[in-house]
Amino acid sequence: MRKTSLSRRLALGLALALAVTLAWAPAASADTLLKMKHHTDAFQMMGQSRPAEDQEITFWIGDQRAMRSDGESTVILRLDQKKLYVANHEAKSYSALDMPVDIASYLPPEMKAQMDQMMEAMQMTATVEPTDETKKVNDWDTRLYRVKLSNQMGITIDSQVWVTRDVDIDLASFKEMTRALASLQPGAAAAADELLKIDGVPVLTETEIKGMGGGTTQTEELVSAATQKAPAGTYEVPEGYTEQKFNPMSQGEQ
How many CB atoms lie within 10 A of CB 47? Predict the structure, then answer.
């Protein structure tokens, strides 16, 4: 698997949390399938570099459950079990986390003191500015929100988020999935409440990340949204996968 620096995981994880930490339209009675395209330009930070990368991301949102998959890893929320499952498809392994997720509780004891200081520096502050700007993006009428995040380490994340209210989705399940995804990323959970002020489904998110001697830009676009019954097994860990203890320091390694 490709190794990713902690600072890059933080930046990309926060961008992910931004892209999905949204308040939605009234809940749908069936599952909602969202398909997104995600692009990251070539990345440089702390002397490390990565080529440009494209991903296809799938979300299923249902009653008391949700799933996000990028083809390499899958996160499954089961509110009925009070569990969050993180599956690694290359290793055919998964971790089961109790809800609400406390990422610090999964660190080795010898690392906790060091990580306490680092986590304080990583904590992001966020501001959300709604605007009156509107435009048509693909098939959706959207409104623009400007979002700024920053931390003591000098990382800044500036995004333009075009959102629509024309997609029905299970509000409670999606909000819990949002918080769970944020809690997996160091420093992201503290900004979740502010980001929840964004009111709508993200149709187009354009993000610029700077800090730690470099940066990158990202775009994420909603390709399709449909209400339909999820296939059997959508909200289950794949058969044959081996359970492993969750390692917060491995998040973002692909």
Answer: 9
Please tell me the distance from the alpha carbon of residue 153 to that of residue 213, in angstroms, as a whole number.
11
> Does an H or E element contain 115, and which?
helix 109-122
Structural domains present in the chain: 6-233 (2.50.20)
Burial class for 34, CB neighbours closer than 10 Å (0-12, 13-18, 19+): buried
Which is nearest to 177 in space by CA: 67, 14, 27? 67
pLDDT, one tens digit for every residue, the chain (254 residues) = 444 444 444 444 555 455 444 434 444 458 999 999 999 999 877 677 889 999 999 999 999 999 999 999 999 999 999 999 999 999 999 999 998 888 777 877 767 666 667 777 778 888 999 999 999 999 899 999 999 999 888 899 999 999 998 888 887 787 788 778 877 876 777 677 787 788 878 899 999 999 888 889 999 999 999 999 999 999 999 999 999 998 876 654 43
83-88 and 214-227 beta bridge pairing:
unpaired
How far CA 37 is from CA of 34, 58, 108, in Å, comes to: 10, 9, 36
The reported pTM is 0.79
